């Protein structure tokens, strides 16, 4: 078993709000955040629905080690979201970057598109006004690795600093990578998560061209409908989720009670199609079995699944098939998707949903799936939480993440003190 990895801190910046409690409250209330987006509308994007992070209040530096203060304008929104979420995660873990051994702290961040918002804006300037109009900070703002780099600078962390990219599974892949670093003894603490800010004209138009986005613009609040028979695509979102991971002996030495344990993880590739998952969910099933094997657990012990649940016809059908195949008719773990509230936050989704899975374990509650009212033939037979949050004491929960290119990642979390 790999339950020597403790989750000791969480930070969230999502369309549900800035901060863990704001996001948790929005998800548990089933409060959809999809709106008609003025930026997409002005650009003439074919789909104008989006789930935006609410404007963040200017923040004064709290600690002298916050080296990036006063320079947030230099960063892409994805990096700003990450820095805010990471500050909350580190603080909630009871850690002080001014007092830890920086060489023993790793930073691992997942992203699907890096600083694409900056890239698009700077390209528009280049076309409109020529090279002289470009910002000297353009390149360090949009390079994919720079979110992790800027976070390491802020934290003063000199251990491994890595960026992962497995499309919409990127945040979950970052957590797996961090766990492997901890297991290898390359760090004592890992600040890991995902971030993306892909609510841009280019990204929205490209996803619309693929037919992936909901076009329910007459009713934005009901546009994101994971697993529902009337689902017609996802709503593009943005945000960041960060977890602080530690070996249990390190957390114990600090007398910190973990929120949960990362007990296992699995990662597979479909080798099937650039954008479509394997039709039988074979890769997802294999990743789930791998996660359970690493955790030393059986499918019958799983109490809850935080599903990828995008609200696209194909993804939800395939994921439901994989769940039915793995658990059979005799066991039905509760299933939820946060995308009905938050939209699809892309490379951040795996980390945000991992954080929500941990919160569900720690708080004895599983959120509902906003927008879900009735299954169709492809999603019938699984216990999808609907209408309201459900009290449930979960000992073992899985978080699913899938990404274009056939990436499948599954994280297995157990309750602190749960044998």
Overview of the molecule:
The chain has 419 residues and is of the alpha/beta class. The protein is built from 13 helices and 16 strands. The chain has helices at residues 20-29, 38-42, 77-92, 116-129, 138-142, 146-155, 170-183, 201-210, 248-253, 282-295, 313-327, 339-342, 349-363, and strands at 5-14, 17-18, 35-36, 49-50, 105-110, 161-164, 189-197, 238-247, 260-269, 304-306, 334-336, 365-366, 383-384, 390-391, 396-403, 407-415. Strands 1, 2, 5, 6, 7, 8, 9, 10, 11, 13, 15 and 16 form a 12-stranded mixed sheet that branches. It has a two-stranded antiparallel sheet with strand order 3-4. A two-stranded antiparallel sheet has the order 12-14. Strand 1 and strand 2 form a beta hairpin. Helix 7 (170-183) packs across helix 13. The longest helix has 16 residues, at 77-92. The protein is globular. The termini are close together. The relative contact order is 0.19. The model has no long low-confidence stretch (mean pLDDT 93).
